[in-house]
Amino acid sequence: MEFSYRRGDHDGPERWGLIRRDWATCSFGRRQSPIHLSAAAVAGGGYHRRAGRLLLSYRPAAASLVNRGHDIMVRFDGDAGGVVVDGEAYTLRQMHWHSPSEHAVDGRRYDLELHMLHQSETRDGRYAVVAQLFDIGHRRDATLDMLEPYIRRVANKRKGHEVEIDDDVDPRWPVEGSGVYYRCGACRGGRWSSCEKPSTMVQGGTRGRCRRRTAEASPCTTADPMRSPWGVAHVVN
After folding, report:
1. For 48, 105, 143, 220, which has the most beta carbons within 10 A of its beta carbon?
2. Are 57 and 68 in contact (CB under 8 A)?
3. Are residues 232 and 140 in the same domain?
4. pLDDT tens, position by position, 182-237
């Protein structure tokens, strides 16, 4: 593993910009994620500017589950659709999770955060990320419920181990019913959107995903430290 999430480590967040030349922005960049989001500032237009509607167009697609060492990733092997942001189209490439959530709303970090990573086909391969926050609750999340058996199969395997998922994965489940998004600048030039309404998951699912950690990542934390907003969050209606 090239990096860890533990502050003070030789490969921890404070030193990410020194690990690789192309990560240098992590040391000095001012448009980075994750950030603290203020519901009042978003409602009042206090973050940068108002943008156009974020258009979601997803479809079920073949996918594989991959142990990346620092997290578990769903890699879409088929056409899962994508999003259009400010008129630019992005194709959905993969989904992964962080625990606790990376972004915070009014100072609160949620139990889990889903990142849906998209890539542009036309502009230097830049990225756009849709994020969904999760609370522990009584209603099961359909996507996590479907993936749980596969997560167990790769959780304690070596980095890079992957399994094919028997059924198509439907990326519409995590974001269904969400209409308002926050967007902020990312560490390496990406575009971020976070669904306004959090979803729920059951407690057992959280424990299952925490088993994916490597020895040096204990306790189970896979979230970046917070950044200052620097006025880069957007509201997309």
Report:
1. 143
2. no
3. yes
4. 333 333 444 555 555 555 444 544 433 433 332 233 334 444 554 444 333 433 33
CATH (domain of 149): 3.10.200.10
> What does each C-alpha distance from 150 to 9, 95, 117, 212 come to in angstroms?
31, 14, 20, 12
**CA-based R_g, the chain, Å:** 17
Show the tokens assigned to 189. 């030039």
| In a shared domain, residues 150 and 173 | yes
Q: Give the total number of structural domains in the chain.
A: 2
pTM for the model stands at 0.66
The residues assigned a catalytic role are 70
HEC per residue, 104-168:
EECCEECCEEEEEEEEECCCCCCEEEEEEEEEECCCCCHHHHHHHHHHHHHCCCCCCCEEECCCC
**Furthest-apart CA atoms within the chain: distance in Å:** 47
pLDDT tens per residue, range 140-168: 778 888 999 999 999 888 889 999 999 99
User: Residue 6: which domain range?
Assistant: 1-30
Please tell me the distance from the alpha carbon of residue 225 to that of residue 6, in angstroms, as a whole number: 9
